[in-house]
Amino acid sequence: MVDDVDSLELDQQSDVFQMMNLVISRTMAQKHPSSRAILTARLELGAAPTQLVNVKGLEEKEFFEYVEVTAKSIGIPASYSKSQMQKFYKASSGSPAFASSILRLMQTGQSFALAIEQWKGSDGETVRRFAFKRELDKLTGSQIRTLYAMCILGTTSQLELSQILGSTEMRLRDDLSELRKYHLYAFTGAVHTGGAHLEVPNPIRLMQEVIRERISDPTRIDKECATARKNTTNVGIDNGPIINRVVALWRDEQFTEALAAAQYANTKSPEDPALLCLLGRAYLKMVPSNAAQADIAFKKASKLGCDRPELFSLWIDARSQLQDWIGVIDVTKLADKDLTTAENAIIRAKAYISLAHAAEQSGLLDKAAKSYFEGGKDVDIAIRARKYHLTTFVELKELRADLMFNYVRVTDRQHTTPRSHIYVWLAAREAFNCFVRRPLLVRTGVARLTSWWDSVCRNEKSDLKAAELMKVQLGNLDAVIQALEEQQSPDETLLAEVKNSKAMLASSWSDFRRQLQNKDA
């Protein structure tokens, strides 16, 4: 038995291993039992897989027994709950040396929970530094930087590391190979595209500050790691590595590979809302994008309760690409249930405009007018809520003016006969109530009210309902005149025109009422 081979220099370690191989091979004989040798080392030393026995930490059952025995031997309580033991096991990764270090903290009077937390910090640094000193001393600057980035990220991939570190593929592969020799990270499975997940064990991650001291530019790596993960915060521990992989592929503009990875993840967890959101985004990233499939993924993610902050903006993008304006309106209203924002109101208003334009181009003036009106009223409600910044408020006002102006314009296109001009006046009145008070709209509305009333007066049949309707509109005209007078800089010409029209209509209406009364008499 040759113990602690790694206490020798690296080239001497290899010499010892090769020499033992040679000695054992020479003692092999057909009629005699062959000799055996056991070497303990931290490196694999080029041994074949059949020659290796990887020794990790103790198994849980053995670890629990070790803790109890050690605790009794140093005179501290030896009975712990199962959940405490599992926490103990996870913190120490089953290492007897680490477990003893934690127990010694408890021997000073620290509670179980506090001892573990302190051991993770500076109180456990000495034993961890000692445990991994030889490994760290043998690493080059490039390998130390790679290990540090892996400690920050926890679980990562070769692609993500190359983007963060700026390493060439060959340089990074060599660094990872060297780190692997010292068992400083492990493979934890693979996704369909992009290779295996690389994960640093917990005891090594606790060495992060020690490793950081050996790097000349740790701040740059800190920033690069933070940037790499800014789009994947608040994801579950199971989803994190997958999402990080896909984001890394996007940064490398490998959109087809990213989609394949997202699709693979979705097949493994088809009901996971975060992965469905990721899948939808991957469809949008394609060149050209697949907005239809993205829409399907986002819709399902929403139904499953996805709380990703980017869901609604991505879903709106997908439906906008599909020119599904009704769908865009529906999504913004759904988003408002979680948080009402000016952005949602603006997007919705633009969707109403697009919907109205499409209807008008198809000759569907009724639908166009309805979309303009609904959009204008929706924006008016948003403005009256007074929850927005000045710049947003200005944009909303412009959208409201555009929507209501076009509502009046299309209504005027619809109703070309004097008998139906009352609808144009009513549309102009709605615009006026929404503070869209352009002189053109006011003049158009009053002119159409006048032409409608003239057609009523020319009708041989007396129209009592029209007379009652006109009485209401004369009151509305008074309200318009009052609002125009109260403006900071009243348009005196427009005001005079409206007052004159109102006087003429009032006089005509009085004559019409007298004629009706005479007929009744």
TL;DR of this structure?
This protein has 521 residues and is mostly helical. It is 68% helix and 2% strand.
Please explain how this structure is put together.
By secondary structure, the chain is mostly helical. Among the domains are: 5-51, no CATH class; 60-120; 323-414, no CATH class; 434-521. 68% of the residues lie in helices and 2% in strands. The protein has helices spanning 10-26, 60-73, 82-92, 96-107, 112-120, 125-137, 141-153, 158-165, 169-181, 202-205, 208-212, 218-229, 240-251, 255-268, 273-285, 291-303, 311-321, 325-338, 342-361, 365-384, 390-414, 422-433, 439-458, 464-485, 492-520; strands spanning 155-156, 186-190, 196-199. The chain has a three-stranded antiparallel sheet with strand order 1-3-2, with helices on both faces. β2 and β3 form a beta hairpin. The longest helix has 29 residues, at 492-520.
Side by side, the strands of the main sheet go 1-3-2
Number of strands: 3
The SS-based structural class is mainly alpha
Largest sheet: 3 strands, antiparallel
Overall geometric form? elongated
Radius of gyration: 39 Å
Fraction in beta strands: under 5%
Distinct helical segment count: 25
Task: Determine the N-to-C terminus distance.
Answer: 130 Å
User: What average pLDDT do the residues reach?
Assistant: 84
- The helix content is 55-70%
Taken in chain order, the helices and strands follow as HHHHHHHEHHEEHHHHHHHHHHHHHHHH
Contiguous low-pLDDT stretches (5 residues minimum) are 233-237
